[in-house]
Amino acid sequence: MVQTIFSDTIVALSTPPGAGALAVVRLSGPAAVAIMAAVFSKKSLAQAAGHTLHYGNLRDPASGEIIDEVVVALYRGPRSFTREDVVEISCHGSDYVVRQVLALLLRHGARLAEAGEFTKRAFLNGAMDLAQAEAVADLIAADSALSHKVALNQLRGGFSQELRDLRARLVQFAALLELELDFGEEDVEFADRTGLARLLAEVRGVVLGLLRSFELGNVIKNGITAVIAGRPNAGKSTLLNALLREERAIVSAIPGTTRDFIEDEVSIDGLRFRFVDTAGLRDNPADEVEAIGVQRTRQRVRQAAMLLYLFDLSEIAPAEVQAEMQELTSGLDLPVLAVGNKTDLASAKTIQAFEQAFSAGQVPLLLLAAGQNQGLEALQMALVAQVRGSALENTASATIVTNVRHARALETAAAHLAAVQTGLDTGRGTELLAADLRHALAALGEITGEISSEDLLTSIFTQFCIGK
Ligand code: GDP
Ligand code: ZN
Questions:
Q1: How far apart are CA 326 and CA 332, in angstroms?
Q2: pLDDT reading at 396 higher than 50
Q3: 278 lines ligand 1 (CB under 6 A)
Q4: How far is CA 169 from the centre of its chain?
Q5: What is the pLDDT of residue 1?
Q6: Using CA positions, which residue lies closest to atom 6 of ligand 1?
Q7: CA 284–ligand 1 middle distance (angstroms)
Q8: Ligand nearest to the CA of 260
Q9: Alpha-carbon distance 78 to 149, whole Å?
Q10: 235 marked among binding-site residues
Q11: What is the DSSP string of 333-354?
């Protein structure tokens, strides 16, 4: 049975602010229907069934003034997003109309919702767990096919179910250990130690698998930063433009953080890449300004997830390319693609020499003519393969963790599970084992909100915008 626990009714604009054909204002709470009926031309609304639509006028009963023609969608709790009575008013999307509608509803007893309050109510009323509530925010923000898919899976509870299974398996053992503790000094062992060791290894394996998926999850959610570096005139800017042109329509420009860098985002095969065009690299920078540029490039490479080392095939020898790449990435564990540009200017012999020089090494070589839009597709495929190869292959679980909070909790759980494992191996006392197991359970429970504090909830839900 669902118990709704809030006595007040909240209201907010649920569509983005600004002019639009329509705007949706949402009410949720025990008085949602009564408040709406008081300002609606059709008084029968008060008795209407849930999941129905009603067309009529929104009217200020005090002045008799009609504010807008609206369509009202009515949901009766618990069959609604928040599990409370919910009314969604589709009105005309001008700021003026929306302000009037909100003011009218506030005068009739609604209260303006705080950021994320609708979703918070959905969580507290048991409509979803915490991981699912966070997926609502992710889904709203999702801007690539893959991030959308991951958020949807989390919203549907795929991740939560996996966590509940893990916890359920541990809880049984934890209970047996607690029972041993209740018996005090006597040396009773209810919990079979060999079975516990096996279970721990399994559960910890799953937790570590989920943690590894965070690497990919992070990439999916935040995009992967690929720095394009190389000597001046190698064709870096040309390549960046060529990569962007293909996707221009759905790409949003990010102004470079400094004038040395131009960055832009492109979605390739569902993955979001952020390409950074750097100032040219030169061995002996002629002046100070240029030296600073080179330094900054190095710094940018250190922060990147991937490096495209671009060179002009007709200007440089294979050994030089390899030396420059090496220098730029020394001490870094970073996937690198060597990209030979201007195939149109290079002789067959040159191309052959490069292919031979790179055939034995670890770094893939791609040859293209950015200025002629040639070979870009192979580069895009190599970029995607690089990301999927390094992250996806580690991701055995179907669930992909995208949330930093979840990753931290999983880390904590894994550490405590490891402590229990060590404790078992070294014959540590039941009390210590039980304590670590409790910590591991608590960490897993924090993800779905089975264990939560007001502080945690506040920090999560205030990241939402008003109306969600
Ligand atoms: P950056 O300094 O590395 O950013 O190099 P740019 O992108 O500014 O390019 C330097 C010069 O190389 C420009 O004149 C480009 O038109 C030219 N260029 C770039 N790509 C190609 C290519 O594939 N073939 C030829 N022939 N020229 C190119
Ligand atoms: Zn450039």
A1: 10
A2: no
A3: no
A4: 28
A5: 40
A6: 235
A7: 22
A8: 2
A9: 27
A10: yes
A11: ---EEEEEE-GGGS-HHHHHHH
- Predicted complex: ipTM over 0.95: yes
CB 235 less than 6 A from any atom of ligand 1 = yes
Ligand in nearest proximity to the CA of 281: 1
By alpha-carbon position, which residue is closest to atom 14 of ligand 1? 233
Q: Is 43 exposed, middle or buried (0-12, 13-18, 19+ CB in 10 A)?
A: exposed
CB 20 within 8 A of CB 93: yes
402-456 confidence digits (pLDDT tens): 788 888 999 999 999 999 999 988 988 888 889 999 999 999 998 888 877 777 7
Find out whether the peptide bond into 255 is cis, omega within 30 degrees of 0: no
- Mean pLDDT for 217-222 is 72
Judge if the beta carbon of residue 30 lies within 6 A of ligand 1: no
**For residue 283, pLDDT beyond 50:** no
pLDDT value of position 100: 95
- Write out pLDDT tens, residues 12-22: 999 988 888 99
- With cut-offs at 50, 70 and 90, classify the pLDDT of residue 467: confident
Please tell me whether 258 is known to bind a ligand. yes
> Highest-confidence range of 38-52, 113-127, 286-300, by mean pLDDT?
38-52
Residue given tokens 């007893």 in the structure block: 109
How much distance in Å is there from the Cα of 238 to the middle of ligand 2? 7
The reply, when asked if residue 278 is annotated as ligand binding, is yes
Distance between CA atoms of 239 and 339, rounded to whole angstroms?
10
> Which range in 70-79, 110-119, 332-341, 375-384 is most confidently predicted, on average pLDDT?
70-79
* Atom of ligand 1 minimally distant from the CA of 277: 4
Closest Cα partner for 266 from 234, 293, 239, 232?
239
Judge whether residue 98 has pLDDT over 90: yes
For a mutational test of ligand 1's pocket, the pick from 227, 231, 238, i.e. the residue with the most ligand atoms closer than 8 A to its C-beta, is 238
Q: Is the pLDDT reported for residue 116 higher than 50?
A: yes
**Alpha-carbon separation of residue 7 from 12, 110, 250 (angstroms):** 17, 11, 44
Residue 49 per-residue DSSP state: P
* 323: exposed, middle or buried (Cβ count in 10 Å: 0-12, 13-18, 19+): exposed
Residue 280 in contact with ligand 1 by CB distance below 6 A:
yes
Question: Of all residues in the chain, what percent are helix, strand and coil, respectively (each to 5)?
Answer: 50, 20, 30
Ligand 2 centroid – CA 321 distance (Å): 18
pLDDT mean over 108-134: 90
- Annotated binding-site residue? 254: yes
List of domains in the chain: 10-129 (3.30.1360.120), 141-217+403-449 (1.20.120.430), 223-394 (3.40.50.300)
